[in-house]
């Protein structure tokens, strides 16, 4: 049988068959590329939108929790909603410590943010009164615009008023920067607020200072009693030492009839030293009052400060602090020890 078809063609051998190359033409290539790019861009856009939604949610959460830092004008922050935790703000604003803080901010800028909360009228200060005051003073003194703004952590403000007091004192309490009188005054002020009526200052100590040891809260309660009894006639409440304040409060509770005479004696004091002497002598036994009498120049000051060159020295009971630009850690230990020993020898000399 002939292998030719009716058209006269013979079957092709497999070896003679060459595969046809199917190359994509220019138009097909363009269509495929456009389709691939569209699919890729769509996936990227969907992922970007998903990430943006996640970031926005995280930002709103952080903003609500007060973890977002903002740059605010110092003049836009009010301080009248929450009483400050310092008794004498005028003295603090003009103190050597404030000048040191201003020098630090002038040289290195603001390193720690303040904390504020939003109200219907704008921003109210929660924490960082000293930093805000330092910036305001620098702005007024220099006119430098870098001091006209402050870095602040902004929150919407807690719903519970007591939380504001806790947040306000927390930083200073941790740094042990508040006196017992100032901590007591915070509780007394909070107890007088309309939103906290029915909760006495003594009870609020346990809430505002819950993070402190119970013994320290006991000391604060003693000062609460002391300020409620004598606060209007105590010219230097911050200068009262812990032991003296606790002892006077204890004696007043045991002998309330002495309160009036003590109030009369305190109206004539002119210094923190005189105040401490009046409080100490009021409850001392008669024999002790005679034997412990000292000449005015022999009275021990509660605290005093002076400068030696550029170094600032602060002296108080059990502490002598030297603030200086000297890097004491770079001094040879034996040399520094020798200097301290010489310091003690001089103090022991009659």
Automatic annotation (TrEMBL):
CDD domains: RepB_like_N. Gene3D superfamilies: 3.90.1530.30. Residues 15-24 have a biased composition (Basic and acidic residues). PANTHER family: CHROMOSOME-PARTITIONING PROTEIN PARB-RELATED. Residues 74-141 form the ParB-like N-terminal domain. This is ParB/RepB/Spo0J family partition protein. Coiled coil: none annotated. It holds the Pfam family ParB_N. Residues 1-57 are annotated as: Disordered. It comes from Paracoccus nototheniae.
